[in-house]
Design brief:
The protein has one helix spanning 76-79; strands at 22-24, 39-42, 45-48, 52-55, 58-63, 67-73. Helices cover 5% and strands 34% of the residues. By secondary structure, it is mostly beta strands. The protein has one domain (1-25, 35-83). It starts with 21 loop residues before the first strand and ends with a helix.
């Protein structure tokens, strides 16, 4: 049985590199923010809309307007299973 690919582990945001905003699920985005990108960036690397990554134990989801949304935390054994 084939195993799923693990989620990319992106580490902590580096202020020296482009990283899209990271918000909580229940946060409302300000209309003042000019986001509207076709991807989310984390430390200068582009990720497609709908992709999940791990930053430490946090699960992040790339959503519309190019924003990372926190989807909770993952235990190490969960991280081996791709979404």
């Amino acid at each position: 049985m084939p195993t799923k690919n693990p989620l990319p582990q992106v580490g902590a945001p580096d202020p020296e590199h482009k990283t899209s905003p990271i918000v909580d699920e229940d946060d409302e985005l300000s209309l003042d923010l000019e986001l509207e990108t076709g991807a989310c960036y984390f430390n200068g690397v582009a990720y497609r809309m709908g992709q999940y990554v791990r930053s430490g134990s946090e699960l992040l989801h790339c959503e519309e307007r190019g924003v990372w949304v926190r989807k909770g935390e993952m235990r190490p054994e969960q991280a081996r299973e791709a979404i």
